[in-house]
Write a structure and sequence with these properties.
Number of domains: 2
Order of helices and strands: EEEEEEHHEHEHEEEHEHEHEEHHHHHH
Pfam families: NMT1 (PF09084)
Organism: Ameyamaea chiangmaiensis
InterPro entries: SsuA/THI5
Keywords: Membrane, Transmembrane, Transmembrane helix
Helix content: 25-40%
Number of strands: 15
Number of helices: 13
Strand content: 15-25%
Protein name: ABC transporter substrate-binding protein
Length: 356
């Protein structure tokens, strides 16, 4: 039997090291789109500029969607990386989506929030623009799986088909709407989107009431593992240029950043260090995740991480360039219709870390 897998991913049994995906760990530096970030002698250096860091004790509330499922955040918490930077981080309860994380920041329940860049931009387009993005913390892991029996070989042949969305308030639908639009498919008029729980996907695939499933890791990886005989990978964001794009981005309110910009530097340094730890300790990272999830075993998590881009962060110019790219793509969906200068807009909503 042939093993099914997302398009472009190597076979499950391949021995590719995790660190070889999308980032080169050389002397403590991570090569990211648009620049090099390193942590040397306790200093965070980005494009040869040294960010201001301090040892001031801080207590912060962080809103992060499904935090127990993120390997980098888990490492920062469990391996005392936050503590080494004198950060006492508490997680906001019951945050299951980027929108809920943004709401926690807006309501004052969180000092810092993490959400997909697409979700941040959708919120900004709706008129809420107080937040300031300062660090891209995780790469994209979107995947589109199609029902084998539907016989859909390419994205441009998705017209008239139905796609299940596993997390309705996520960036998944936005991301794949952009991909469909670029391939000549109108995601609003020519696709039927069906919000659906994970436990309902199997029956829907079998009876043909859905033709595809869209999501992001780890939930979409779980679909792949459960229903390998029924699905093929049609498109994903872990290969090609999108594998170098940041997805989860950290933000503070404009007021909080003005009052304590060094907090942004300390958090960026923590996530940079945590990402390096995950690359260097993939087996222990899997063990940490397995301790916090009931549905994915260690073997499944190990395979998933091997098929994801290595953790990197995006700062400053690199972050702004990626935000501009996302804005240009969202314009395909008639968002930001009156915005003429994406570069200026990205400079307004993204902030640089303070430097010495």
């Amino acid at each position: 039997m042939t093993t099914t897998r997302p398009e472009g991913d190597p076979p499950a049994g391949s021995k590719r090291p995790l660190a070889s995906r999308r980032a080169l760990m050389l002397g403590g530096g991570a090569v990211v789109a648009g620049g090099v970030v390193s942590l040397t002698a306790g200093h965070l250096v980005h494009n040869h500029r040294r960010a201001v860091l301090d040892d001031r004790p801080r207590q912060i509330a962080l809103a992060w969607p499904n935090p127990e499922l993120d390997p980098v955040l888990t490492a920062a918490l469990q391996k005392d990386i936050f503590a080494a930077h004198n950060l006492d981080v508490s997680l906001i309860d019951s945050v299951g989506s980027g929108r809920q994380a943004i709401d926690a920041l807006r309501d004052g329940r969180a000092v810092v929030a993490a959400a997909p860049v697409l979700t941040w931009l959708q919120t900004f387009a709706g008129g809420v623009q107080d937040a300031r993005l300062f660090c891209g913390a995780r790469p994209c892991t979107f995947r589109l799986l199609v029902r084998k029996a539907a016989g859909i070989p390419r994205v441009d042949q998705m017209k008239g088909h139905s796609i299940a969305i596993l997390r309705e308030n996520s960036a998944d639908r936005l991301f794949f709407s952009i991909m469909l639009k670029r391939k000549g498919v109108d995601p609003a008029a020519q696709i039927t989107w069906r919000p659906m729980g994970l436990d309902d996907v199997g029956a829907a695939l079998q009876d043909g009431s859905i033709d595809a499933v869209a999501g992001h890791d780890p939930i979409i990886w779980e679909v792949l593992q459960r229903y390998r005989p029924l699905v093929n990978g049609l498109f994903n964001s872990v290969d090609g240029n999108y594998g170098q794009r940041t997805n989860m981005a950290l933000a503070m309110s404009a007021q909080s950043f003005a009052e304590d910009p060094v907090l942004a530097s300390v958090l960026a340094a923590s996530f940079h260090e945590a990402g390096k730890w995950v690359v260097r300790n993939p087996q222990e990272a899997v063990t940490l995740l397995a301790d916090h999830t009931q549905t994915l075993g260690a073997a499944t998590l190990r395979e998933m991480l091997l098929h994801e881009p290595a953790p990197t962060i995006a700062l400053g110019h690199a972050l702004r360039v990626q935000v501009e790219q996302y804005i240009d793509e969202l314009k395909l969906l008639d968002m930001f219709p009156t915005l003429e200068n994406a570069t200026s807009y990205a400079h307004r909503i993204c902030v640089d870390l303070p430097t010495e």
